[in-house]
Amino acid sequence: MSHLIIEQGKGVGAEVSVPSAGMKFGRSPANDLVLEDPAAMLFHGRFFFKSDGSLWVTDFGAGEKTVVGGIPIDEYQLKSGDLVEVGETAFRIINTTQEDAVAPPPAPPAPVPVPEPPPPPAPAAALGGEEIDLGFKGGRKTRSKPQAAVEATPQQAKGSLMHRLMQVIVILLVLGVLVFIVPQLLEMVEDTPEVVVKKETMALSYERVQADTRNIFRYYLELDEKGNLSMAIDDLKNNRHIQKQKKVEETVMLHLAVSIDDAGFFEVDSDYAGTSQGQYDLYDIAVQRNRRFQQIKVLNREPPAEIKRTVSVIEDFALSELGISHTFFKDNAKLLELAEEALNLGGARYAERDVRYGNLAEAIRNYSEAMLYLETFEPKPAIYRKASEGLLRANTERNDRYKEHMFSAEQSIRLQEWDAASKQLRILSELIPERNDPRHDTISSKLLNVEQHLR
C-alpha cells in the first residue's frame, strides 16, 4: 500500500510505502529513504504512524526545514493531498491508512425518545366550577361560609402561637450553630496544606549489542530523572571507543516520554528470544515514566513493530542531542567518502556566499556534517582538520555579517524606515535559519514588529 508519490526531485512518479515502524529520510545511506538531494540534511526527518493509526511527519531540527503546504513544521499530522517538501524534493500524500490499522468502533445506538409530561390540569373556573375567593379581592364577601366551617376556638389560636414560637426557636438554634461552626471551618481551610502537583519523571536505558566471531559492537545510552544523558560506544574491530554526556532540558524529556508512549512501547508485554549460530544480536530497552516501569529484551529475533518504533524514537533523540548515532559505524572507507563529499559541497557553498545569503548557512551545515562522519575516527584524518578550519572560517564571516546587517536593521527601525528594516531582517533570516540559534528568535521578533508597521 503506497502512501507517498514523488512529485519533484529524483525519481518523479515513484510511489513509497511507509512501514508500521516508520521511515527516516535524508541524504545519509543510513536512512530508510535515501534522498539524492544536496539541499536535504544528512538526517532530515521521519514519516511515522502514531498509535491511533494517523500518519505524521517530523523534522529533526534541520537548517533546511521540512515544509507542509508551504509552512515549515516541526511535527505535523498528514492527510491525503498534502504536499511535503524536503529540500528540492516534494512528496504528495496519497494515502494515510496504516496497513494494520484497527477498524473504528461501531457507532453508539440512537437515544430512546422520552415522552413529554402530561399538561397541567385546567383551572377550576375553566371547568365550570365555582370561583373561590382567597380574600385578595376588595369589597364585601358575597359567598356564604359552608355549614362545616366554624369559628377558630381559643385552643386552635393557642396551637398556632406555639407553632410560630417553635419556628423562632429553630431559627435561633440554626443561627447559633452557624456562629459556632463557621469560624472553625474557616480555620480548617486556612490550615489545609497546599496541594503540591508532582511533576512528571522520566528515565531510560537502551543497549544495542551486535557481535559475531569477527567483532563486538556495543551502543549504550542512559538518561536519568535529572536529565543527565550519557552515551558509550565500543567498536572492537576498528578500535573505536566513544563517550559523551549532556544535560537535557525537562521539556525535551517530556516530549521523549510522550513519543515513546505513542510508539507503543508499554503495549509490549513480553521478551522475545531466538537462536542464531555464531551471532549475538540484542535490543535491551528499559523505560520508567512516573510510577510505571517496563523492560523489554529482544535477542536474536526480529523486533516487533512497537520495539522498532521505540528504537527509532530513542536513536533519533540521541542523534539530535549528542550529534552521533550508532548507524554512523559503517566501513571506514565509506565514512571517508561521505565526509569528503560534504567537505567539497561546503567549500562550493562558501565560494558562492555572495550569490545567495543562505549559502553561508549551508556551508556551515556541510562542514558540520563532514566532521560528524569522522567523529568516531581516532586519530582524526586530514579531512576532519579541513572541515574544522572551513567551519571556523564560515562561522566567523557569518558572525561579522550578522552584526553588520543587524546594525543596519536597528538603525532603520529607529528612523522608522520600515521597508529598509524589513529587507535587512529578511537577509538575517537567510543568514541564521537554525531555530536552535538564539539569534533566530531575535530576528523573528523584530521582523514581526516591523511587518505590523507595514500593514
From TrEMBL:
Composition-biased stretches (Pro residues): 103-123
FHA domain location: 24-87
Region (Disordered): 100-128
Segments traversing the membrane: 165-186
Domain of life, per lineage: Bacteria
Keywords for the protein's UniProt record, in alphabetical order: Membrane, Transmembrane, Transmembrane helix
CDD domains per record: FHA
Coiled coil (UniProt feature): none
InterPro entries recorded: FHA_dom (IPR000253), SMAD_FHA_dom_sf (IPR008984)
Protein name, as recorded: FHA domain-containing protein
Species, as recorded: Pontiella sulfatireligans
